[in-house]
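Below is a filled-in request sheet from our internal design queue. Each sheet records the structural input a requester submitted and the sequence that came back. We keep these sheets so that new team members can see what a complete request looks like end to end.

REQUESTER: design group, bay 2
PRIORITY: normal
MODE: inverse folding
CHAIN LENGTH: 194
BACKBONE (tokenized):
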């Protein structure tokens, strides 16, 4: 997986910014920790599909602070397991013959930036009492190998059902057929591949 990621990551770094203008890029960077929003990157190379998902800890757990009790630690562990269960999260076109190669999710502490608070007054008011604390997000990585990757036209997501506070997912897709960006929602949860 590491070798595959090293080959694909440069493609993501180059291709996605070409698709987005400078203002969108700045906005996306600040959205990385927006409650109710997630970021999904998908890359297809040959027969492989690699996805990376970022969600706020609030949307996954209902809290963002470091777990402070056995119950909160158990909730983090359960969330990591839930986000690693590709069969529950995604439904890939069956004709593509895709099999999971790897799936991994983890909670990541994110330092709270004062600048971020200045630009997002609502977020500042919501977390005024927690300015000095770290927040968290979940990062999940998935790799699939498909026997008929050209038959993969759509990936159904169940993220909105599993995480009800999630309102939108910004998805960037890069395939050998082209690149695109979509905003997914509970009413339009499917990833359409170019």
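RETURNED SEQUENCE:
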């Amino acid at each position: 997986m590491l070798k595959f990621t090293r080959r694909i990551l440069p493609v993501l770094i180059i291709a996605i910014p070409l698709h987005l203008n400078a203002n969108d890029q700045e906005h996306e960077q600040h959205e990385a920790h927006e409650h109710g929003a997630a970021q999904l990157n998908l890359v297809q190379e040959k027969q492989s599909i690699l996805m990376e998902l970022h969600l706020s800890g609030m949307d996954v757990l209902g809290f963002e602070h470091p777990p402070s009790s056995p119950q909160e630690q158990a909730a983090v562990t359960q969330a990591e397991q839930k986000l690693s269960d590709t069969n529950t999260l995604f439904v890939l076109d069956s004709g593509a013959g895709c099999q999971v190669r790897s799936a991994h999710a983890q909670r990541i502490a994110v330092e709270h930036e004062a600048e971020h608070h200045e630009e997002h007054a609502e977020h500042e008011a919501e977390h005024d009492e927690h300015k000095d604390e770290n927040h968290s997000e979940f990062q999940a990585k998935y790799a699939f190998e498909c026997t008929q990757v050209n038959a993969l036209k759509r990936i159904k997501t169940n993220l909105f059902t599993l995480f009800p506070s999630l309102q939108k997912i910004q998805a960037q897709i890069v395939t050998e057929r082209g690149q695109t960006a979509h905003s997914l929602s509970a009413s339009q949860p499917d990833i359409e591949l170019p």
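SHEET NOTES:
- Residues 169 and 184 are 5 Å apart (CA to CA).
- The chain has one domain: 2-192.
FILED BY: M.R.
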